[in-house]
Design a protein that fits this description.
Tetracycline Repressor, domain 2, 195 residues, mainly alpha, Arc Repressor Mutant, subunit A
């Protein structure tokens, strides 16, 4: 990212950090590299993000928030809860596959960063399961789902489909037949929600 006269914002720093991480990887990327890409001193970057760890957490959160934002639309869609659960899970799977296949360098980098950002990841999982909880609750209220605790059901849905969104399984996401396996898992889970 070439230096510009544009005001330096946290968002610009995060964009530059993504580019630096993509180029150098998490082991070699430094705050000095980010500052150089922005045409500022590393002290300027530190005024926005107090430490390298805080900067890395912020860029990880930004990356994870993109997924949550993409999925949020399924929570309020005016469609049946089964379709919304199915589409939400498919949207999560597709978002992760797209990130892994479309930008493998950055995906590998984030896989490393996520290991160090436990609180950020925990909050992300809470947000995602919160979205699922709302959809399941709507299904219970409509008499479509028979489960008694929407939060437990949502967490179970999330955990049961881990193979299709946990980055440690990324190599399997391009294998032949993975879509059919995903559909079979979702069908089974939806039958369980219906009782």
């Amino acid at each position: 990212m070439p230096p510009t006269s544009e005001a330096l914002t946290a968002e610009r720093i995060l964009e530059a950090t993504e580019e630096v991480l993509r180029r150098h990887g998490p082991a070699k990327a430094t705050v000095v590299d980010v500052a150089r890409a922005l045409g500022v001193s590393h002290g300027t970057v530190y005024r926005h993000f107090g430490t390298k760890a805080v900067l890395r957490e912020a860029v990880t959160k930004r990356w994870l928030d993109r997924t949550a934002s993409t999925l949020a639309r399924f929570v309020t869609e005016d469609r049946g809860p089964e379709d919304r659960v199915r589409d939400w899970l498919a949207g999560l799977f597709e978002a992760k596959r797209k990130k892994a296949g479309g930008d493998p360098e950055l995906f590998a980098t984030y896989s490393v960063l996520v290991e160090d950002a436990g609180d950020v990841v925990g909050a992300h999982i809470d947000e995602l399961t919160g979205q699922l909880t709302e959809i399941v609750r709507a299904g219970i209220d409509a008499g479509v789902f028979t489960v008694s605790d929407p939060a437990v059901a949502a967490r179970t849905l999330f955990q049961a489909t881990g193979r299709f969104h946990d980055p440690s399984y990324a190599r399997e996401w391009q294998k032949p037949g993975v879509e059919a396996e995903f559909e079979a898992m979702v069908d089974l889970l939806l039958r369980g929600l219906r009782g």
